[in-house]
Specification:
The chain is α+β, with helices and mostly antiparallel strands. It has three domains: 8-57; 62-195, 3-Layer(aba) Sandwich (Protein Transport Mog1p, Chain A), CATH 3.40.1000; 205-347, no CATH class. 25% of the residues lie in helices and 26% in strands. It has nine helices and 14 strands. The protein has helices at residues 6-16, 24-27, 29-32, 36-56, 98-104, 131-141, 183-195, 225-228, 271-283, and strands at residues 77-78, 83-86, 106-116, 119-128, 154-158, 161-166, 169-175, 220-222, 248-254, 260-267, 290-295, 298-302, 308-314, 317-324. The strands form two sheets. Strands 1, 2, 3, 4, 5, 6 and 7 form a seven-stranded antiparallel beta sheet that branches. A hairpin with a 5-residue loop joins β12 and β13. The N and C termini lie far apart (56 Å). The relative contact order is 0.08.
Length: 349
């Protein structure tokens, strides 16, 4: 095993010292050798350095995650040490699925196993960048939601796995045996985990989706090509110019004839970014689709399955409709566009 350097040991010790016990004398030693104005300047610069250091320290150092201990349920105890993964090594735990988590803003993963006799459960807590990031992963992973009663968080569960989202945390509880007899233990583990996490805050992003005729459980979030891929192929790479920063919302709807189409709504930071994204989409459109009509405000296309699609720009919001059974009359056809960012209820002061 490689030995830690003296600087690494010192840094580790510093990070474990309670802030209330940190003496400024340790950091102001050079200033004690100075007098008057020079000493005052040294003190000021030292304090600024300390404050900036605390601000820029990785957020993981201030994690709010406290994992359940032994006896969260009678007889159950930790069966292994806590394992953590960061952005750099998430691939070592999730083989082939890490890209989605990273795209949505993954920060840290905590894995803890618990055992009683031959029965074992594992707890996975994915710490994400924001509540929107955690919800994005949850909506992809939860499938058809079947909530577990008694859990104070959005969730979906069965005897083999619970999938939960709370604030900026995405959680899996895995039952390797899959037997229903462990459901009370899984529920207790979930409840104890949630007890130590911050409460949810409202996410207004989904409010962009019109509620009329929206099919239940069809909502999704996108933030790049990996989340977009199972929905529709518009082209290669980051075709919608989301850059792992801009969120889009997706929902499926029933039309007047009973057919199903999909609506994608992306509120970009400003009109310039939205127009640039639409132009990039049009110029790099998948050759399997054919653009049949275009204007400065959007374009109409027909896809490889002979279904129609519409891309429409309004201010800084781009709306895309896919899987339409009939051709829109024109790009400005009266389909309800989302609210602008200024008028969006989640942005009102």
């Amino acid at each position: 095993m490689r030995k830690k350097s003296r600087s690494q040991i010192t840094r580790a010790k510093f990070l474990t010292i309670p802030f209330s016990q940190i003496s400024l004398n340790r950091f102001l030693l050079p200033a004690r050798l100075l007098n008057g104005r020079k000493r005052a300047l040294a003190v000021a610069f030292t304090l600024i350095f300390i404050i900036l250091g605390l601000i820029i320290l990785p957020r993981a150092l201030f994690s709010e995650v406290i994992l359940p201990g032994d006896e969260f349920y009678p007889g159950w105890k930790k069966s292994d040490r806590l394992i953590t993964f960061t952005r750099a090594d998430l691939y070592n735990y999730i083989d082939g699925g890490a890209e989605l988590f990273l795209e949505f803003g993954f920060e840290k993963l905590y894995v803890q196993r618990y055992r009683l006799g031959e029965s074992e459960l594992s707890l996975e807590i994915y710490e994400m960048e924001s509540p929107e990031s955690a919800l994005g992963v949850y909506l992809v992973k939860c499938g058809k939601e079947t909530p577990v009663e008694g859990l104070e968080a959005r969730n979906s569960g069965e005897e083999s796995q619970f999938t939960i989202v709370r604030e900026r945390y995405f959680i899996h509880i895995n039952n390797f045996e899959g037997g229903r007899e462990l459901l009370p233990v899984m529920r207790a583990l979930a409840a104890e985990t949630l007890k130590n996490l911050p409460t949810d805050r409202a996410i207004s992003l989904l409010d962009y989706l019109p509620r009329e005729n929206l099919i239940r459980n069809s909502e999704r979030l996108i933030r790049g090509p990996y989340a977009l891929q199972p929905i529709f192929t518009f082209g290669e790479g980051d075709i919608l110019q989301l850059e792992g920063k801009v969120f889009g919302v997706v929902g499926s709807y029933r039309d007047e004839a009973g057919g199903i189409f999909t609506r994608i709504i992306i509120p970009y930071p400003d009109e310039q970014r939205a127009r640039k994204a639409m132009e990039h989409l049009q110029q790099n459109f998948d050759p399997y689709h054919k653009i049949i009509e275009s204007s400065p405000s959007g374009f109409i296309f027909i896809d490889y399955q002979q279904k129609y699609g519409l891309v429409k720009l309004k201010g800084q919001v781009m709306e895309i409709l896919i899987n339409l059974d009939r051709k829109p009359e024109n790009i400005l056809e009266a389909r309800r566009l989302p609210l602008t960012v200024q008028d969006h209820p989640g942005r009102r002061k």
